[in-house]
Write a structure and sequence with these properties.
This protein is mainly beta and 76 residues long. It is built from one helix and four strands. A two-stranded antiparallel sheet has the order 1-2. The protein has a two-stranded antiparallel sheet with strand order 3-4. The longest helix is centred in the C-terminal third of the chain and has 6 residues.
């Protein structure tokens, strides 16, 4: 089951973690060099809560914390 927010549509996105080495030019070095890039996933802060839908039903859905704080969903 995918963790996608029903209110905002936030979902996990892929990216990279970049690792540098070296001494900065300001402190006398030749600058920072790229060593490697590792793939990673940025995961949104989603919680599974009971939500009251527009028709009045109560369902458990994935909702981001940002949507809960903003009041975009009605908690049951």
């Amino acid at each position: 089951m995918s963790r996608i927010c029903v209110a905002t549509g936030k979902r996990p996105v892929k990216g990279r973690k970049i690792i540098h080495k070296g001494q900065s030019k300001k402190s006398g070095g030749i600058g920072l060099q790229l060593v490697k890039q590792t793939k990673r996933t940025f995961k949104p802060n989603v919680q599974r809560i009971r939500v009251r839908t527009a028709s009045g039903q109560v369902k458990r859905q994935w909702v981001s914390v940002k949507a809960i704080k903003a009041g975009l969903v009605e908690k049951a």
